[in-house]
Specification:
Thiol Ester Dehydrase, Chain A, six-stranded antiparallel sheet, elongated
Length: 157
């Protein structure tokens, strides 16, 4: 069995560099379908019910926004990287509602990149992700630690 060649390793994460990940337009049907299955609160399911809430109209679940971010991350770089996963999210903030018809754009900035002191061949990145709507409004942030394989470690194996 041959190894799949990866193009992005820990060494490729430059501190301070921002990378664009792509975009996704969100439909009403997607918002309602996600909410019906995973977050069935009225302001995610029904325009009339949502109109009288602090959201002021139908809005995607924050968890739906997270799922969209994850998809943009996978399509943008993760599935073609030496990703070894993450121990979890440090912070997620939903800053503005995501509405039907919004086109969301994602990016990440590498805040820190260091080699693991206890696990040879593994690099650790602290990443700051941002999700913007088509107006340039920041709708969500997410901060996390991610582990990546090091290029030299894979070449040696």
């Amino acid at each position: 069995m041959s190894k799949q060649h990866k193009t992005l390793y820990w060494e490729d994460f430059e501190v301070g560099r921002t990378v664009l990940l792509g975009e996704k337009t969100v439909t009403r049907a997607e918002i309602v379908a996600f909410a019906a299955e995973f977050d069935p609160q009225p302001f995610h399911l029904d325009e009339a019910a949502a109109a009288n809430t602090m959201l002021g109209g139908l809005a995607a679940s924050g968890w739906h926004s997270c799922a969209i971010m994850m998809r943009l991350m996978c399509d943008g770089y993760l599935t073609n990287s030496s990703s070894l996963g993450s121990p979890g999210l440090d912070e997620v903030k939903w800053l503005k509602p995501v509405r039907p018809g919004d086109t969301l754009k994602a990016q990440y900035t590498c805040k820190e990149a260091r080699a693991s002191g206890s696990r040879p061949g593994i690099g650790i990145c602290e990443l700051h992700y941002e999700l913007f709507n088509q107006h340039g409004d920041l709708v969500m942030i997410w901060e996390c630690t991610q582990f990546f394989g090091q290029r030299e470690a894979e070449a040696a194996s």
